């Protein structure tokens, strides 16, 4: 009789499948969050602003230098024909900060739009997770080609997205809890350097936790592959040819190109400012 404590070791195919799932998760997270270059494009303009302001205390020159650098990074992406959403989000974020600082004459207001964005994003992650429609699932669903199938057809992934959304929400709330008191009590230089210091570590922690939750979750359901199978099944059915059982199920469910296209959407930039 086999001891209940004994477990069957994973087979080579299971190990390969798990490794493949982790690789897909890593690639999807890299695409969604912009990778190292995305971090640079959202961090360096703020670093330039606070560095110049620390030296000469000139709001206008510091703000314009940060904006010019941000635009230059966006143009570099255009030249290389890379994904533009991260560069554009960086340009718009810096532009809003420049406008606020110029209008109020307070250099700390350069950081205020980004801080408000981070707080709003933290609340969005937390509220949607509590409501059972985690924001991270809405963001990463199209990246994994599963769209919203995780909501009703893949409860394990829904739990993973919910936990990851809570992680993002709590991390960004903690970041906001540090920055907003500094906005009121500290000077611009102190606020700026603390904000730069808190730019990358919380983001990396949130991405790491997301990877942990998703790597342990069931694999995504590729609704686009289902759509293609259903379309082929429809063509075979129209031609009077036998239809495979799984393809027939997809055909019965009415998986169409239009239905999938309606659920495609661009993932917003959610790294926090």
Question: What is the fold's blueprint, element by element?
Answer:
Blueprint (H helix, E strand, L loop, with lengths): L11 H22 L1 H22 L2 H22 L4 H20 L7 H19 L4 H6 L8 H4 L2 H31 L2 H10 L3 H15 L7 H16 L6 H8 L4 H6 L11
Helix pairs in contact: 1-10, 2-3, 2-4, 2-9, 3-4, 5-8, 8-10, 11-12
Notes on the structure:
Residues 1-7 and 250-267 have low confidence and may be disordered. This protein is elongated. It is 74% helix and 0% strand. It contains 13 helices and no strands. It is mainly α.
Write a brief caption for the model.
With 273 residues, the protein is mainly α. It has helices at 12-33, 35-56, 59-80, 85-104, 112-130, 135-140, 149-152, 155-185, 188-197, 201-215, 223-238, 245-252, 257-262.
Features:
single chain, mainly alpha
Approximate helicity band: over 70%
Number of strands: 0
Distance between the termini: 59 Å
Structural class: mainly alpha
- What is Rg? 23 Å
The parts where pLDDT drops under 50 for at least 5 residues are 1-7, 250-267
Mean pLDDT: 79
Percent strand equals under 5%
Given the structure, what is the number of helices?
Answer: 13
Order of helices and strands: HHHHHHHHHHHHH
Tell me the overall shape: elongated
Question: Could you describe the largest sheet, including whether it forms a barrel?
Answer: none
